[in-house]
Amino acid sequence: MSTPSIPRSPSWKCVMISPVGVLTLVAGDDGLRAVIWPGESIDRQQTLHGSNLTESRLPESQTAVAVLDRAVAQLTEYFAGTRAEFDVPLDPAGTPFQKLAWKALLTIPYGHTVSYGEQARRLGDQRKARAVGAANGRNPISIIVPCHRVVGANGSLTGFAGGIATKAWLLDHERGQARLA
Asked: The pTM is what?
């Protein structure tokens, strides 16, 4: 049984070139909705932000454009090694549990990792490690909501929308910058 979805305002997008590839950022008036990786399927993209993406007949939203500008600026600083925390407004679509899991991701310090079990423990039930993994897999705002900082119980790199090589790059980047601080 599916719950009826609340209509969302239209979304606008922009593209940025980064060291990990071309990223598509999606925002609405209430905040950043998604960071889409190269090659992500259309189905996943529509699940992340809905199908009402940037219709040219709509007037441009100055609020959404400001969110996109801020997100691009902060991601640029992150990749340059001058930003460890983001403060762009976020507006992800997800279930209440997914949103709790994503909120927990925001507490993982820059340059550090936790296991799925640890993230589940922080949410109150270590037995929900698989549910946490599934929620993280649906995180629409990669990098800014740092699901790349969650690893397997043995420290292994596990699934990531941008690919395992990208996850490794992000973690190495953060660890290298954290040593410089």
From this structure: 0.84
Helix-helix angle 129-137:96-105, to 10 degrees? 90
Q: Which two tokens stand for residue 169?
A: 């790059």
- Tell me the C-alpha distance between 150 and 104, whole Å: 11
Q: Which domain holds residue 50?
A: 12-80
147 noted as active-site residue: yes
**Total count of domains within the chain:** 2
**What is the per-residue pLDDT across 81-108, written as a single tens digit (0 to 9) for each?**
999 999 999 999 999 999 999 999 999 9
Q: What is the CATH number of the domain that holds 131?
A: 1.10.10.10
Single out the catalytic residue among 25, 32, 123, 147.
147
CB-CB contact of 50 with 34 (8 Å) = no
pLDDT digit string, tens, across residues 8-18 = 667 888 999 99
Q: Is residue 22 assigned to a domain?
A: yes
